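ugh ok so i messed up the first submission bc i forgot one of the chains. this is the corrected input, ALL of the components this time, i swear. 686 residues overall. if the numbers dont match what u have on ur side tell me asap before i send this to the collaborators (the ones from the other lab, u know who)
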Amino acid sequence: MKRMLMGLVMCASWLVVVAALLLAIAPAYAQTDPLPSWNDGPAKQAIVAFVKTTTDQGSPQFVPPAERIATFDQDGTLWVEHPMYAQVMYCLDRVPAVVKTKPELAKVEPFKTVLSGNRAAIAKLKMPDLMKILAATLTGMSVADFTADVKRWLAEVKDPRWKRPYTDLTYLPMQEVLKYLRANGYKTYIVTGGGQDFVRVYAEQVYGIPPEQVVGSVGATKYGYDTAGKPFLIKEPKLLLNDDHAGKPEGIHLLIGRRPVAAFGNSIGDQQMLEYTKAGDGARLAMLVLHDDATREYAYGPAQGLPSTKVGTFPPALYAQAKQQGWVVIHMKTDWKRIFAWE
Amino acid sequence: MKRMLMGLVMCASWLVVVAALLLAIAPAYAQTDPLPSWNDGPAKQAIVAFVKTTTDQGSPQFVPPAERIATFDQDGTLWVEHPMYAQVMYCLDRVPAVVKTKPELAKVEPFKTVLSGNRAAIAKLKMPDLMKILAATLTGMSVADFTADVKRWLAEVKDPRWKRPYTDLTYLPMQEVLKYLRANGYKTYIVTGGGQDFVRVYAEQVYGIPPEQVVGSVGATKYGYDTAGKPFLIKEPKLLLNDDHAGKPEGIHLLIGRRPVAAFGNSIGDQQMLEYTKAGDGARLAMLVLHDDATREYAYGPAQGLPSTKVGTFPPALYAQAKQQGWVVIHMKTDWKRIFAWE
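and heres the new structure output, hopefully the right one now
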């Protein structure tokens, strides 16, 4: 009995030693920089301060885990959108296959221009033309066939500047923000003007964001049966949700049903999502990526006095609204130490 | 040093004792019945066998955690749907308030009948009439006002038979299934023909299912600003998704983007969701609640030779399909030891 007691006492003293060691290690771990690709500055500080104040139980701005929703635009916010959205490139690449099944389209614009291969002419296509191409190339097949085709395309095609798959063109600093938020109990969502089914194909692998957390522009699907009687969903040419501008908060309500606590965007299409997020009670984080790094990525938008371009439209009024409403602007050139993981 | 070593040895022996105790306790815990309100029988056995085979790493039917999606119809599957859907009761109760703002409706059918208070006449209203009532009572207010009004209604109103709030009328055995699946890494979703915004008001509290996991019939919302410039969403009279019949797999694709591994329903409106779930590869669980307990709840459907009723339509063909395609029928009368938690 005495030996047993002595053992217990020794155990207890060892436990104290182990506990002390753990306590000594814990702060060192906590101090590991969660955002190593960010330079110190107002943007990084805003993110860290927001996470601390919303996850500290003792903070008056504590947010319960169930309400920790963070939404991210994709094009220009999580990955490169210049010179053209990846999904538009996919649609253009699909035109020959579509024309093969519908030869009458070969003589009709905008398909004629796309088939000509004349890059300058293709670059000049206007939004109504692009919408026709999107409708023709993104519908009429089953969801499963579409997924397989996008996977094939992503594996084959490389972007023109870096000669890398599009899925390599994600911004490392934003990947760190996604992971940092998730490590702190946040559910991270993509809220994109791009097609929901397109982004779902790679979002889990590329961003760690599962299909059910991708909000995007949505075409209707129609349930049916194949010749063997097996049920499947076919993609219909009917737009249910245009998940851009006012469509972003509408899409967030449809898919999530809660107002986000944090939101990240980079263009006029994100204005309403950022406003809506910021208008909630308590601590809110609204951030806008400014593309001001012509060397490492691209420069476009008000900071450079450059004209707004077709993609990533960022008028001076948006910059002014950001300043006025307390959104934090991320200056790519000065806030980001590295842009890509493979650099 | 010797004392230290002795302490270590004693510690090690104590660790062995503790480990042995833990090992002895673990199987006892594992054997605790996760479904105590279920009688032993094919239904309970099917649920337990499904969970075991899809969560055991060594099983050829193992399902990775990210793909563990289970979908549940609500009315008649998770809670009582007789004599009328709770949401229809809510809409009928809201008619006077709507007529107050639009007095011209008082003289128009079906509003005239609802205002008459003639229960027999109200019960005879047909689907197009009900749709008019739904459109008038579920739209034209902000999402926040709607949520507040449903909360008020749920707190005030009691169902006619048990004199309890509707939120008390959930089936205890199904609550156990929800918890059991979640404890095994499944994400549980409601997939209801009812209104998404209506069910979201109480789903988290009643079922432990957060707003982002409620798939329902969806009306469009419109983003706008109040007089103070604060953004809000208003409910529009435009149906985006009728989440019933073929609309259920379509809604599942829209909100979840993955095929469920398990699905639970009780009526013809769930047919396509069950087919779609069952048509996937690997282990699949499709279950159908049969209301055959006239004493403790209600009896309707083919097992009793009763005619199909307006709610919970369950034609004999559905029962036949269940038998043919290996869906498991839950017989409320014999499979459920208890129906409600408060009994």
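quick check: The first helix of chain A runs from residue 2 to 30. that seems consistent at least. The radius of gyration of chain A is 24 Å.
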